[in-house]
Amino acid sequence: MRNQSKYLPFITILLAVYYLVWAIYLNKAGYSSQEALFYIEKSKIIIDGLGTRLRVMGLTAPIIPFYISFIFSPINTLLAPVIASAICTALLFYIIARPLLKRVRGNFYLFLLLIIFIFHPGILYAACSGKSIALVLIFFFLFFFNLLKFYRSNTTFHVSIASISLVMLIFCDYKFIWLSLFFIPLVLSITIESLNLSEKESIFRLFLSFNNPSLRRKLINKTFALYIILFILPLACVISYKLLNLTHANDLNYSEQSPYATWTVLSEKLSFDQLSTSFVYQLPENSLLISARIIMFCPLILIAVYLFKNSTYQILTLLTPFAFVEFLHIKYEKVFLLHEYYLIFLVLSLLCILYKAQTIKDQTTLKWVVGIFTLVQLFTGYIFLKDSSISEEQNFATILFDHSADKELNENVDMANYLNHLPAGSHVLVDDAIAFPIVAHADSIQKLTLPYQSVFLSAIEAPDKYDNYILLATEKNEVTGFTQLNNRYIPFIKKVNSGLRIHRVYETDNWILYNIFY
Amino acid sequence: MSLRLLIILTFIETKTSMSIPELLINDGFLTKQDWEKINNFSARTGLSFIKIALDFGYISRKNYERSLTNAGYKFQEIREQSFDEEILSKIDLKFADQHVAMPLRIENNKVITIMTDPSDQLFIDFIRFTYDLEPEIIIASDLEIVWLSNKLLGDKYVKSAVYELFKRDPSSSAYTTFSSGQLVFLFILFGIVVIGLVLYFKNTSIIINVIISFFFLIAILFKLFLALVGSRFELHQAVTRDDLKKLKEDDLPIYTILLPVYKEDKLIKKLIWNLQAIDYPREKLDIKLLIEEDDDKTLNAVRNLDFPAIFEVIVVPFHMPKTKPKACNYGLHFARGKYLTIYDAEDIPDIDQLKKVVSMFNKLPSNYICIQSALNYYNRNENFLTRMFTLEYSYWFDYLLPGLDTLDIPIPLGGTSNHFKLENLIELGAWDPFNVTEDADLGVRAYAKGYKIAVVNSTTYEEANNEPINWIRQRSRWIKGYMQTYLVHMRNPVALWKKLGWRGFLGFSFFIGATPLTFLIYPFLLAIFISYVVFDLSSIRTLFPDWVLFMSIFNLMVGNILMIYINMMAVFKRRFYELILFSIANPIYWLMHSIAAFKGLYQLIVKPFYWEKTEHGLSKVTSPTNIIK
Prior knowledge:
The complex is a heterodimer. By secondary structure, chain A is mostly helical. Chain A has helices at 2-28, 34-48, 54-59, 63-71, 80-103, 108-119, 121-128, 133-153, 156-170, 183-194, 202-211, 213-249, 254-257, 264-277, 290-297, 300-307, 312-331, 339-356, 363-386, 391-402, 407-420, 432-441, 456-461, 463-466, 489-496; strands at 428-429, 448-449, 469-473, 501-507, 511-517. In chain A, helix 5 (80-103) packs parallel to helix 8 (133-153). Among the domains of chain B are: 3-68, no CATH class; 85-153, Type II secretion system, protein E, N-terminal domain (GMP Synthetase, Chain A, domain 3, 2-Layer Sandwich). Chain B has helices at residues 3-17, 20-26, 32-45, 49-55, 61-70, 85-88, 93-99, 121-131, 142-153, 155-168, 180-199, 201-232, 241-246, 268-276, 296-303, 324-332, 353-363, 384-407, 422-427, 438-448, 468-489, 493-534, 538-543, 546-574, 586-606; strands spanning 101-107, 110-115, 134-139, 255-261, 285-292, 312-316, 339-342, 348-349, 368-377, 418-421, 452-462. In chain B, strand 1 (101-107) and strand 2 form a beta hairpin.
């Protein structure tokens, strides 16, 4: 075991290199996620932008993935998000493999883990897409791992680390705040279990503790204390962050709801449009079947549940993410479930196996079942990614398996290239609420007049005074409604300033570039 | 002469011809077995019969006086007795103390000798051989003799208690508060800041703000890290019940307990009950109650006890500075134990604490010279202040100190319940009487000499300060002491870094140095925060650019949240769940710290050695008896 532990950092580095090679290859082949482009654009603003960049610096969300990506910007701004995601995925492997080696004897499970991390399309997507999935998976793993440890050790350390992991998780993906909702009954169950009672059955323990004043006080105090220690930190951090939103953007929900602060606004809008305007009304993610889809995607979770069959609140803990995902589907009803929310179950099942596998007597059968399920999982992972309702995920699968380029990205790159070749001293009015993929590929951000700058509003009112070019979204552009700089802008500005002389200089399906004459 | 008077006189004559032990047995205050035990003990230790009888719980002082008075002896007041320096120069305090007797002068060709036990033949022989004259004995209470002997003979000991460390290792003594180098550094820094503010007000303000706000955040992150490390081992039992079972009573070493008190007359009875509950062989306990020369209140409280005491009184002669470490250093001269600990008068240590420490010392390598027990409060639910204090102490002793211990960073010892190996304590130069947090200073000094300190799973319950002014007084002394300690050890930062290593150095800086600084700057940060966020003060916006404000606010918010969280964690180990919400009130509690910090800073400059006395015994909570966890 010591030898394996010694080689683990080496394996992790090799894995990181493997992911990096894939990521760079896919990037060159024309794949880029919206999230990655968003981070690239914001990083460029912070590094090269002119004007107040504070809001971009502090309120770009999700903040942790953005900062992690930003750290790699000095290496290569365009590749920074994918470098970050590749390294974070390798780190995830290390974080899972280390306790695995400590707890489980033999190489079999490490080998399976490596298979999953090398071949599972979902993991490859997490590693090569430049998205925050890997970070989410890391903190999701740490959160549940420390909770399970807490159940056993009852130490403040594990519950505190779980709480800190939850904070990080929320700041990697804000939707995980809803996970805490499902821990409310769970914490009560944990407290009841931890009371020193002779009765073993949970329901009778509850009955006993509610009917005895001393026990009731103890139960309430302990439950409340556990709630606090687990949730006060995320709650306080969210409130503080919202307060900062309020003081710096005059909007409590700026970082969640503004397309300037987060990429999810546009992606959710696209999902919504796709679902509401689709001619064939299809619901591939029927809410009743979400859990079934998860089990299809990750059959290993069944083994995880089996491993904890005798522990009530561990089982409840495992079921919490199911409730969470079902809840997300209800709350964000017209939004497709991202691949990330399937992958959390893969990580959870790995956690359960590393935590409990050693307690099973018949290791041979267990290894067979885990091995088979892992292979099935590789296949279902491929199917789920290929048939995903989210175009970004589909694109990834297409490029990964068919090596064909993303058309929309090419279009953005073409427009950015055109902007890069504009004469020196030219200024272009761009709204990066929707044009961030173009800005991300622009060579010089100083050439662009963007909304983070105080002159942007004046430039919209009188473009001829500030800029030589205006980039407008065409009617075909799916997110044209999110910007003022769309096809309705020209009639509006002509009305305000009849002397304005403009003409088209470059046009793609989604974008038109106008030149302003003086 | 009537028959009745004749009978009485015969009775008295019979009694006076008896030795004192026989008299006490005759009066039923002592058994023969006790006498035998005392004699054996005396043979082993060289202590006189009366010293053992009165200080090891065999007989109460009142009964002793009663017995002797009935026998015709007359106890006299001796404080005003005249004395001859030359006569005094021939006797050492320790010998006088062992026999509770001393010669005063020569009068009518006799040595006027004060004694508590007039039948102490050894001492009478000493007088005869030393002065070549017969003694004339004046009977006096042992406490009076102790008071007078320490006052008249204790000069060299008290001087040693005050100046020993200063003479031996002046660089470690807080006798000089600011070294020349430190003063130059501080004035240059001050000058740069003033010049900066005059010439480039805005930029200098920004730089100061950024440095302070990051310093604040890093200090708190460091504390969180320590608390997490400490909480990881919260279930670890350094000494288990099985370890205790393995200890043999006969093998236990002599254990000295120092009890420095000042005007603690209300607590003396409580103290005795707590001490009597300690699970340790009585004869192997060497308990010293250190009373200041001018503290008649406490001395009278001891005199009025109507049950046997199990401690020896030592009167500390007057000498400035009048501090607890000076008293402890003085008591150290009389300590007989292999190990030594300090308790405050109101302390209630777990009854098995001494045994746990012995067991742990047996297990640890020889370079571990001190073991710190956890401190907590028995009156935690008394009021807001005691609750906050309990939260703070729980975090400090249950998480922070174990965290420091795990990371091998110098542990600032708590005020009491730190158990030393006596020989190493003396080698270190004992406590610095000029330092008002001598305990924290000693911890750092021990580390600098390559020694280690461990933390044991045993608690001493104290009385939490429940009165705000009293609290601020106590806290101002602690914070002043931290400043003193930091200044003392930072006289040569490079040398300190070499001694402690980078981890120890950083730990020391962030723990001892950062603590007062954090409290000093906290109100300013809070004021900026409130002015900016709550009152939307526009001039702050013009002074600081957005990014500086953003960072400062972020740091302050995260810092406060984390610190509150750390305090919340603290109640978990102790299962004080009802206190968890009080952690939210920490920002108010820290403001009280800030008041104390400014008071401490002022005192550091104007009266650095002044010992702000904490009033004890204010709590109305009846203390529980010693607890084994």
